[in-house]
Structures are given as structure tokens and as C-alpha cells.
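User: Predict the structure for this protein chain, please.
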Amino acid sequence: MKNNLQIGNIGEKKLIKIIEDLVLKKSGKELLRDDSFFFDFKNKNMDGIIVLNSDMLVSTTDVPVLMNSYQIGRKSVIMNVSDLLVKGVKPRGLIISFGLPKELKKKEFIDLLNGIIDCCMKFDMDYIGGDLNESKELIINPMVFGFKNPSTIIYRKGIKVGDILIASSKFGLTGVGFDIVLNKKGDFQDFPNYKRSIMSILEPQITGIEAFILSERKIATSSIDSSDGLSKSLQDLMLSNPNIGFELDFNRDLIDKEAFKYSNEFSVSLEELVLNGGEEFIHLFTLDPKDFTTAQNEIQSNNGQIFRIGKVISEENIIIVKEGERKEIKSYGYEHFSKKG
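Assistant: Here is the predicted structure, written as C-alpha cells:
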């Protein structure tokens, strides 16, 4: 069967067989055909409660024009795994359902699966099963789960005034990448000096090292994944923690050097690139300032990183401090179903 065939000419049973064969080939594990899916707890050393996340990928809103099928499959899993990792939870299994347009090529479907399965293998996560159906556009709906002692989960709620705000990476790369791809209709060839920014939206990178250490040491007072953008993520933390706000230091600990360069070269708002880029999958935490040095040293010794980017204040606003001046943030990034979106 040729790879340029459309899946509408292949049929559901053969597509399922492709999934089963590819999972077995890459992971060595057979998928079980049944009405429900089963996860074997034996020899897994499970502890605590089950933690789940399901974020849907829809091609019209979540797939940049340059993204290939492998990257799409990988991203669909990354966006779910990230929400577990930031809680300090190791993902253990994946159940995934597809809405597939019949015009999709067999090769594109296989590349999609390879991205999904490779991501599962990277995080030592079992591909358990799922469902597929015909749809007008590509839709991928993964559900990932793991297990964690509730006392070591880093929740959104728990922030105290005086805590510091830290991040696992610097902001601005995805803002640059999306501006190039969406607004300037560019690619690597047109913007050779901004390959990191473009790759940040095509192949986001996460590890979870920071959250694992902070959760086991029980020193983080909150956490959130910044996939909706920095300003929106901070607003979400405020909703879970009334009577607090944030003051951000608008400096090189917060902002990636590529964002500074791009903003200057193309006269694009640096604030917009940093605060409303979105899909960074950067992990944000708050903690008592007395624990920062210890946390930073241990995280760095395990090949992770954290940056001190601000502090928690009693004022219920998000403030940026830039060259000694304080400014309140009014925009809170992208929101589905919003007229501004």
C-alpha cells in the first residue's frame, strides 16, 4: 500500500493495524483490543492518587503552517505531558483519540504516530490505546496520567505574599517564532538569525527536572505551565490565590536574548513577545525566597535551570518593573472564543 494514499481509501481497520504495528515495533509492547483499556500496576511501584490531563490539539488553532506531521504528533503529547510534569508528576500512560480528515495521506498519518510514540518513549510512558474517527480537520485528543503522593503535588493554590516567582526558562522565543510564521509569513530561510525562535514553536522542549526536585523537597508554594502565555498564566494563579499579584523584573533573567534582538531589529513590542507569546511550556513556580539558593544549586547539579523573575505582592495586579518604572499589565494573551483571539 503506497504511502501517498489518502486514509479515506485505507479504512479504519487497517489504520488501527498501522497503529498497533508501529507501537509494537517501536516500544515492544502489544496493544490490547477490547472495549476498555487496561494499565498493569504490577512492578510499577505506584504511590498515591492518579493525576490526569487532557488537552485537545485542533489543526486550525494549534498547528503553525511550518509544522510537519511528526512535529504535530509530538506536540499533541508534549502539551499534555507538560501539565503533569509541572505538578511534579511523572507521566505513566497515554490514551489518545484521533479525528482524521479522509484526505490525510498514509505517510502523514505514520509520521504523526511516530511523533506521538517517540514522545511516549522519551518520557517512559505507555501508549495504551484510544479511538479514531473521521472529521473535517485533524483533531488529536490525548489523555495522559501518572501517580503521585498528594502531599508532594505542587498545586496552583498556596502562594504567600513575599514569595518569589521563578521560571524554568526565559520568555520571548515563541513570541518571536509566532510573529515570524504568522505575521511575516517567514521561515528558516528568511530569518536565519532566529532559528531557535522558530524551532521553539515547532519542537518545544521540556524535561520536568525542576518540578520533580521542588516537589520532592516540598519547597514550591505553587506551579503552573505557561502554555497560555506568561500574563495569562499569572492571571490564572491570581484566580486560585485571591488577594495577591505579581511584580515582574523585565530584564535578562526573564527575557531570552533572541527576543531582545528581534524586538530591536523589527520594532516589535518586546512586552508583547514576552508576555503574550504562548505555547512556551515553560514551568512557573513560587517559593519562599530563603529556599531559592538551595533549590537553584540542586536543580543545576541535575542539569536543570531556574531563573528568578519576580515576586508576589499584595496588590491584585500584574506589574512589570522596567528601568526602575512600574507599569500595570492590561493584556492577558490569547483566549479561545474571545473576540480578541
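Residues 7-152 form a domain with the 60s Ribosomal Protein L30; Chain: A; fold (CATH 3.30.1330.10).
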